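My main concern about presentation is that the manuscript never shows what a single data entry looks like. The format is easy to grasp once an entry is in front of the reader. For illustration, here is how one protein appears when written out as sequence plus structure tokens:
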Amino acid sequence: MALTRRRTRAPRRTAPRACSGARTARASTEAPPTHYCDGARDCVDGSDETEDACATQTCAEGLFRCAYGACVD
């Protein structure tokens, strides 16, 4: 009995979204508000993780606020 290797695919990653610094009226290609200040850079320009973007962000229950304002667990 010969053993064969099974190829597994890595999970598909989506390209970072293009985002604006403003958190109002976004185009469909921009990150949703839930992606702001979550500790992961979702926008090409990083605007979803800046100190300015995170300054007014309220962290959900059970999350900790990082020095720059991101909400992480």
In short: The first strand starts at residue 64 and ends at 65. Residues 7-13, 24-28 have pLDDT under 50 and may be disordered. The chain has one helix and two strands.
